Amino acid sequence: MERILTTFLISMAGALMTGAPDAVAGGVEVSHLGVNNTLVRTNGEGRYLMLPVQESSDDAKINVLVDGNIAETIYVRLAKSKIDYTVPFDLSPYKGHDVIMDIISPQGRSSVREAKEDVCWKAFELADTFDISNNEKYRPAYHHTPLYGWMNDPNGMFYKDGTWHLYYQHNPYGSKWQNMNWGHSVSTDLINWTHLPIAIKPNGLGSVFSGSAAVDSANTAGFGNNAVIALYTSAGTSQMQSLASSTDDGVSFSIYPGNPVIALESEARDPKIFRNNDTDEWNMVLAHPLEHEMLIFTSPDLKNWKYRSSFGKGLGAQGGVWECPDLFELPIEGTSDKKWVLICNINPDGPFGGSGTQYFIGDFDGRTFKADTDKDGNIPTKWLDYGKDHYATVTWSDAPARRRTAIGWMSNWQYAADVPTTQFRSANTLPREIGLFRAPDGDIYASSAPAPEVEQLRGCLTSRINKTTIGKKPRTVQLPASNDGICEIVMDIEAYKADAIDLVLSNSSGDKVKMQYDTRKHTLSFDRTESGIVDFSENFPAVTVTPTHEAEGRIQLRIFIDRSSMEVFGNGGRFVMTNLVFPSVPYTILALSSQGGNAKISNLKIFSINTK
Ligand code: FRU
C-alpha cells in the first residue's frame, strides 16, 4: 500500500511540476485539474473519441474546446465504477484542429485522488469505427429505431419528391434523455429507413426540442422555392421558437440568425406549422404545456407570427402537460363532410397512466378551433390509441394524395429510460393513416390504421384457419416456426353466443399476453402483467382497454408483433392499442377460447415478416 502511495505521490508531483498529463493512452491525454475538472486532449488519429458511459452516473458537462474555443457543450453520464457501453463523439468536423474535452464532473468526490479512480479516465480512446450492428434481443426488426442512443418524439416529418423524412428527438451520447438533437432518417416506402447525419444540433439558444417542417413551395420565407423550413423549440434557460431552413431537401439546416421567431413569457413548445389553403396563410399550433392548452398563430412568411387564439383550458384530460400538437382537416368516411382534428399529446394523465394522445374533433377557421360537443352537450375526451406506448404522435406535412400519415413514439415517459435495452432506447410505431368515422354512439372519432405500405412486410402465410368455432377449451395455433419474435396475425371474430373471447400469446417460459374481447361491453383488453420482464418499473405491468366502437359483436383484428412491441389494430383502425412487451423468449403459441358460449373465428392468418 505504501509503495502504491509513494508511486502515486511521485506521479502526482511529476504531473504538478511538469504539467505532464496523468495518463496517456489510446491517443488521448487525461489531466486532472481538480476534484470536478478534467481535461481529455486528443493527440492521435481516429474519427471518433469514444466516451465511456455508466447509466446510473450523473451527467458530466463537457465543453468541447476546438483550438481553445467552446464549439459544443454536451452532457454525458461518464462511467464511475463500471462501463455499461461507449458512445462515439465524431471528431471529423474538427479534423486538423486541436480538440480538448473540458469535463466538469458531477459533485460528490471528496478529493482529486477519489475523482481519479473513476473508470472512465482509462477508457477514453480514439477509434475509426463504432459497432452499430444492433443485434440486441429487444431491438425491433421492422420498426424505425435510432442506430444507437436515445430517441423520443418523432418530429419535423415532411414528404418531398418521393421521400418520407422522419426526424426525431435524439441523444447521440447515451441511451437516456439528454442533448436533444434532431436525428434524421429517410424512406421511400415508410418501412425501410436510411439513417442520415444529425440534421439540427443545439446552438447557443439551447437544445433542439420537437417541432415540425414543411416545404415552402412559394418561397414565402425567402430561403428559395421549395426550401424546407423547420420550426422547433430552442430549449435553453427558457423555451422559445426557432426557425431553420434547408435548401438540400432537409439533409442540412441553417439556423436562422433572427431567432427566436416567437418568445413568450411562459413555457411553450413543439410548434406544428402548416400551410392553410383556405386562408392562404401559415398556421402554427404551439403547446402551452403548463396551461394545458394549445395556442394558435398565423404568419405570412414563417418568420413573423401573430397570436390568434387559445384552445383547451379545462377541456379533455388536464392532469399533465399538453405537448406535441397537430391540426388537420379530414373527410368523414362515407360522407362528403369534413372536420378538423386537433391532436394534443398529454403526459402524464394518459388513459392508463403516463403518456397518451388525446384529440378533439371540431371546426377551424384559420384563427380559432371550436370543438364539437357530443349528444349530451359535452366535449368528450378521445384517445387515438388505448395502449400505454403511443406518444408524441404527429403527422407528415405535404404527404401525397391527401394522405394524413402519422407516426408515434412507442414508449411512455413513465419508464422509457428504464426499459431493458442498452445500445438504443425506443422505437417508433408503424406508420398509420388517420381517418374519421361516425361510431354507433353517433359521435365522430379518428381511426388509425396501418399505412398501406405495411402490407409489403407480409412474408409467408404460416398458419391459416378459414372458419372455426371455439369454446371453453383453447384452440392453439403456432406462431411462425422461424419465429424470432416477429409476425403479423389477422382474424375475424364473431361473438355468436360468447360473452367474451380470449386470445392468449405464450411461450415456454410461461410468459403470457392476454387479450379479451368483451362482447357485452364492446371492449378489447390487453393484459401484459405476465408478459415477460415487467419489474423494471412499477408502472409497466398494466391492463389496457379500448372501446371497439361496434354494435354487432364482430371485430376484425390485425396484430403486429416485433420482438418487444405489439400493435393491435381493430376494424381497420377504429380501435388501436400499442403496448411494449419484453418476453424472456419469443411468444410461440396463440390460444383462442370463449366464455359463456361458442364464438366464431374466420380468416385467421399468421404471416412471417419480410425484413431486409
Ligand atoms: C414530448 C417532449 C416535448 C419536447 C420533447 C423534448 O415528449 O417533452 O414536449 O419538445 O419531448 O425532448
Architecture blueprint of SSEs:
Layout: H1 2-18, E1 23-25, E2 28-34, E3 37-42, E4 48-53, E5 60-66, E6 69-76, E7 85-90, E8 99-104, H2 112-116, E9 125-127, E10 149-160, E11 163-171, E12 181-187, E13 194-200, E14 207-216, E15 227-235, E16 239-246, E17 254-255, E18 269-276, E19 281-288, E20 293-299, E21 306-311, E22 321-331, E23 338-347, E24 356-364, E25 369-371, E26 382-383, E27 391-395, E28 405-409, E29 424-425, E30 432-438, E31 444-450, E32 458-470, E33 475-478, E34 486-494, E35 500-506, E36 512-518, E37 523-527, E38 543-547, E39 554-562, E40 565-570, E41 575-580, E42 589-595, E43 599-609
Parallel strand pairs: 10-29
Antiparallel strand pairs: 1-2, 2-3, 3-8, 4-7, 4-9, 5-6, 5-8, 10-11, 11-12, 12-13, 14-15, 15-16, 16-17, 18-19, 19-20, 20-21, 22-23, 23-24, 24-25, 24-26, 27-28, 28-30, 30-31, 32-43, 33-42, 34-39, 34-43, 35-36, 35-42, 36-37, 37-38, 39-40, 40-41
The structure holds beta-D-fructofuranose.
Beta-D-fructofuranose (FRU) is lined by residues 152-153, 169, 180, 209-210, 233, 269-270, 323-324, 392.
Low-confidence stretches: 1-18
Distance between the termini: 57 Å
Mean of residue pLDDT? 95
Sheet bearing the most strands, described?
6 strands, antiparallel
Nearest-angstrom radius of gyration? 26 Å
**Overall strand count:** 43
Q: Which oligomeric state applies?
A: single chain
Helix and strand composition category: mainly beta
**What is the count of helical runs?**
2
**Helical content, roughly?**
under 10%
Ligand catalogue: beta-D-fructofuranose
* Shape descriptor: globular
Fraction in beta strands: over 45%
Strands of the widest sheet, in order across it, are 1-2-3-8-5-6
